[in-house]
Backbone:
């Protein structure tokens, strides 16, 4: 009980430190509503509707449980891909490590608390999505049974309800436990390595390897359409489903307990989670302390090498820019969540075209674009604009530009460097890590669509304007309420409301741009080249105006920074 109590106390301390602080101003309440209405609600509704439709369709072939199984496995994949670097950094490379190891608790108790904290932070946004999927599933059951929700409560077995409640919180746990066990074993196997970059690279390669396995398992999806997807899922021979059922083997037990109402499967599902968690704790009890010693030696070695490295003279702007780049690349939390996350866009675009461009609806769209159909060209332009808005907001490079400074934010105010120079360096760092990924995404699309060079340049200019708008708004929000009282880097990201607000605002901005563009196109009936020129002028005018207006306000916020 003492160990459990120690882990719980440390967990509560970490959770309190990462709690989102909401400024007491009406505008932030409005933004909070935008976050809920623009991000969480549409996502949950979409997942719920998909679950409802898939369950109804698969019920006709006697495999209604495969629909919810497919969704649970998709969410498990996302938990593991996005949790790999999070758990690894939280266990070994977070900046609060040196403070926490001095506590009078055993190392594996500390490890357990940090893992649970990482699990909660990474999965908090996944819980409502899982709930939505299960609501869609039960709604399909009610429809199939020709009864209302109230009647369904009495008809469905308690085993299914208990399984659903457990699944909401436990589906992401196994992928995160895999990440935790991998981290502990990796540190134990490479304890003689004296380079932190080696650990980062290996963990990154493993994450990319699993992501590649996920994409490879989807290679046949392009052949599935509305006519044959029921057969593909209902037969259970879908490659993705078969692959993930082996990796995340407890999930089929969960869906069996949910759909087949078998208490034995539910007990097996819960028991396997307990067994995997105990295995993780046992590995930590054996090797976690050694891993902390290894990380401590890495820190000392890095400090020694850094002290011997001669410096070079740079201009003030270049010096500020290099500082931003080093902080982002050398801090694992920032690198994973702000830098490497941008790779999703070119990787996703490649997978989309590589697996589906030869057949199905996408093949028809590619054919229409290549023969010059205006609506296809307009769709590509608007899709790239949408990606530029969302990618800039999602990577949080701009919306954490000031929060990343932490308690040393006073340096921005007192170092002998003009505020505008520092601001431009932060904006440039955001562009350096965002635009190449967007251009790579555009290049992949251009290859498969057969874009001309002039269109590639034109679309790139539009994406740059969208990036400038999103970046300026993100930095304006963060400069007005920087979250600097954090002890580890993940708290700087999770405890910063600017990230969520900027994402919500950019989703509405992207939606407004697309909606107004389509309406104007239909109303004006202009030729596409003339209409595209209009969009270009309006978007760039908005971008320049946004940057000029936000610069003034950001500089005022920098002057008013509370450095006490």
Residues:
């Amino acid at each position: 009980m003492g160990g459990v109590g120690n882990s719980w106390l440390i967990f509560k301390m970490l959770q309190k430190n990462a709690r989102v602080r909401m400024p007491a101003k009406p505008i932030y309440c409005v933004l909070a509503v935008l976050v809920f209405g623009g991000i969480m609600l549409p996502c949950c509704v979409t997942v719920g509707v998909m679950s409802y439709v898939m369950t109804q369709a698969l019920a006709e072939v006697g495999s209604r449980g495969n629909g919810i199984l497919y969704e649970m496995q998709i969410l498990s994949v996302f938990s593991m891909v996005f949790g790999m670097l999070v758990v690894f950094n939280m266990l070994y490379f977070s900046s609060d490590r040196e403070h926490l190891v001095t506590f009078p608790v055993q190392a594996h108790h500390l490890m357990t608390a940090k893992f649970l904290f990482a699990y909660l932070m990474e999965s908090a946004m996944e819980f409502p999505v899982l709930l939505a999927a299960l609501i869609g599933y039960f709604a399909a059951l009610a429809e199939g049974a020709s009864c209302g929700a109230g009647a369904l409560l009495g008809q469905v077995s308690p085993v299914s309800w208990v399984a659903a409640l457990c699944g909401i919180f436990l589906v992401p746990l196994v992928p995160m436990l895999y990440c935790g066990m991998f981290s502990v074993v990796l540190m134990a196997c490479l304890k003689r390595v004296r380079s932190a970059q080696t650990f980062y690279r290996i963990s990154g390669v493993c994450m990319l390897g699993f992501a590649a396995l996920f994409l490879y398992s989807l290679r046949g999806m392009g052949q599935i359409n509305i006519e044959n997807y029921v057969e593909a899922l209902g037969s259970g021979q879908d490659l993705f489903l078969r692959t993930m059922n082996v990796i995340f083997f407890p999930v089929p037990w969960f869906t069996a307990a949910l759909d087949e109402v078998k208490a034995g499967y539910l007990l097996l599902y819960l028991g396997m989670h307990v067994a995997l968690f105990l295995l993780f704790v046992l590995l930590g009890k054996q090797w976690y302390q050694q891993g902390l010693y290894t990380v401590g030696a890495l820190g000392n070695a890095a400090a020694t090498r850094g002290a011997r490295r001669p410096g070079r003279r740079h201009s003030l702007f270049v010096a500020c820019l290099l500082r931003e780049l080093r902080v982002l690349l050398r801090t694992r939390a920032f690198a994973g969540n702000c830098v490497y996350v941008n790779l999703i866009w070119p990787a996703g675009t490649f997978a989309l075209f590589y697996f589906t461009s030869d057949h199905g609806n996408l093949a028809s769209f590619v054919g229409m674009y290549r023969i010059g159909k205006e609506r296809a060209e307009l769709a590509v332009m608007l899709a790239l604009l949408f990606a530029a808005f969302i990618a800039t907001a999602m990577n949080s490079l701009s919306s954490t530009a000031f929060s990343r400074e932490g308690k040393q934010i006073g340096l921005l105010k007192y170092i002998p460097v003009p505020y505008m120079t520092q601001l431009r360096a932060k904006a440039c760092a955001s562009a350096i890590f965002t635009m190449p990924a967007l251009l790579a995404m555009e290049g992949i699309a251009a290859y498969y669509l057969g874009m001309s060079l002039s269109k590639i340049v034109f679309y790139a200019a539009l994406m740059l304007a969208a990036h400038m708008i999103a970046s300026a708004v993100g930095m304006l929000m963060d400069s007005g309420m920087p979250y600097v009282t954090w002890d580890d880097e993940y708290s700087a990201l999770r405890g910063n409301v600017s990230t969520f607000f900027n994402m919500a605002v950019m989703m509405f901005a992207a939606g407004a741009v697309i909606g107004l563009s389509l309406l104007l196109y239909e109303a004006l009936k202009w030729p596409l080249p003339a209409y595209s020129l209009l969009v270009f002028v309006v978007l760039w005018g908005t971008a320049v105006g946004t940057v000029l207006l936000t610069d003034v306000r950001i500089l005022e916020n920098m002057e008013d920074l509370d450095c006490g």
